[in-house]
Amino acid sequence: MKLKTITACLIILALGIYGTYKLTKRHYMANSGYSILLHSKTINGKDVNSLIDKDKPLLVNFWGTWCPDCVGELAEIEKLSKNKNLTLITVAQNSGSNEKIKEFMKKKGVNFIVVNDKGDKIVNAYKIFSYPTTYYYSPSRNKTVLKRSGSLKYEEYLFFADFVNKY
Fold it and tell me: Is residue 119 part of a domain?
């Protein structure tokens, strides 16, 4: 009788722990940077989720119009945005209104996908502390394979995208 009681208590405890784990994981996924990004709109009003090709690596590049290193690599980001073997979504932080970002991009001669993170929800969820920063996701999107801070050349972006594509 004592063994049955202990076994029943262990089963109940295990179910409670498992249920807590599932609820916590669901809450985390719903409030993760990736989830918040997917439910965002671009500065042109398009749903981000509809722009992501699920069969390609995804690069999420965080930048700002105020960031000298970010501005210095705009040509690289523009070139990257034209690459058909990956999906690039950029997140502009603390860069003003959508119209202001559009004007800035027009002056710089670039035209890539931008999400304006006005309330810093995405930046905070991703815990971005330096700019530019890029997250690389494998096509499976199961996990972030790589996070890279700092300016890169086009070939370096491709190297890391190819790396995550293998996972």
Answer: yes
